[in-house]
Amino acid sequence: MPVQTRRRSTSTESGNPLAARGSAGRRSSGRSGPGGGRSGSGRRPRRKDPIWARTMVVLGALLMMLSGTTIVGSKWLIAQATSGIEQSNLLGVAGKTDAEGGDSLEGPIDMLLLGIDHRGSWAESDTRADTIIILHIPATHDQAYLISVPRDTEVEIPPFEQSGWPGGVGKATEAFFHGAQNGAGHAGGARLMAETIKNLTGVSFDGAAIINFSGFKSVIDSLGSVRLCVDEDTPSIHMTLVDGQPMWNSDAAKVSGEKQQVVHKKGCREMQGWEALDFSRQRYGLDNGDYDRQKNQQKLIKAMAKKAMANGVMTNPLKLNELIEAAGKAFVLDTGKAALPDFVFTLRGVAANDLVMLRTNGGSFNGNDAGRENIDPLSQEMFQAVKNDNLAEFILANPSVLAGQE
Fold first, then answer.
1. How many Å apart are CA 342 and CA 30, to the nearest integer?
2. Mind listing the domains of the chain with CATH numbers?
3. Residue 267 to residue 24: CA distance in whole angstroms
4. Would you place residue 334 in the very low, low, confident or very high pLDDT band (cuts 50, 70, 90)?
5. Is 39 helix (H, G, I), strand (E, B) or coil?
6. What dihedral do alpha carbons 367, 369, 375, 377 form, nearest 10°?
7. pLDDT single digits (tens) 356-389
8. Which of 146, 167, 172, 185 is most buried, most CB within 10 Å of its CB?
9. pLDDT tens-digit series, residues 97-111
10. DSSP string, 77-90
11. How many CB atoms lie within 10 A of CB 230?
């Protein structure tokens, strides 16, 4: 099946929230003016949000850099606001070719989002990517789909000359580690991971992002808190309360005081940065292990996007600057052949409620004899739908791939 890089869906099933974005009355091939408003009388009106109130939180994370119309989406303003974000080549040969649409942002956009947990004292070579998410934005640029790739998926990790890796079979999470050796660093880890995931799924990428969870706490703190729902009591294997204050277990072991294990209790509540990130890291003891962790991380992304759009959060210049500064410390981005301001400007129509969370393997472990995981046939079809930009139609035919949409 050929890759349809300029395809626009013709679905008209407006009764379904996924199909609604595919109705003919909401789409057209043209765009108007520097403000980015699209032509066509049947479109929904733009939300009255400030320029940063649309998000693209990568993990939580990347959709923090979008726009609205209170300030007409000036690329100059976007360039100023994103100037502190580190950019690097994270894709290598996994980037889209010109024939696949890599020369333009007019078609569907696919990004690889990698979450790492790296502290300042650790060597860059001692890092794995425990969170692997494919972000798919269809050619209409008005919705975003998040698909988590299980960290323990068995993959063929190709040779990588820069790090000296000869190639071999391993877990997906290990690709980042092998790519980061011998001075290749996090950028090398991302490039080998991107090539590995491209070979696994068939999806090439327009961009990529590395999100450092240790630095990501400050992004949530700049928002004040995020509202998350805990489905089951979840003990933390990473953190301890010492006299009521959270500390890493290794640090807590070195000090005295009243100590209590951190347990994330069932229910919905506002969480501070440390609590939200710790909760999203947990997988041991959960009913579905890493799949529940994937779901919780996707929920965190959506919660951050919603909070960024909340009244007053993005209209306060001081909070806005704090958020941008925090994001600059937490992310490394690669926007392929497009300049970052152009990339952000193109995605201004995606909002928090437009994030759809999907799951592989029906949300349960699909193990092999080696104790690793295989991607089932339905999930492979889902990746093919990403590649061909007909994911909405695929979901309508296979609703079991939808994760919880809180």
1. 17
2. 49-222+314-401 (3.30.420.590)
3. 40
4. confident
5. coil
6. -110
7. 889 898 887 777 888 899 999 999 999 999 999 9
8. 172
9. 999 988 888 899 999
10. HHHHHTTTSEE---
11. 18
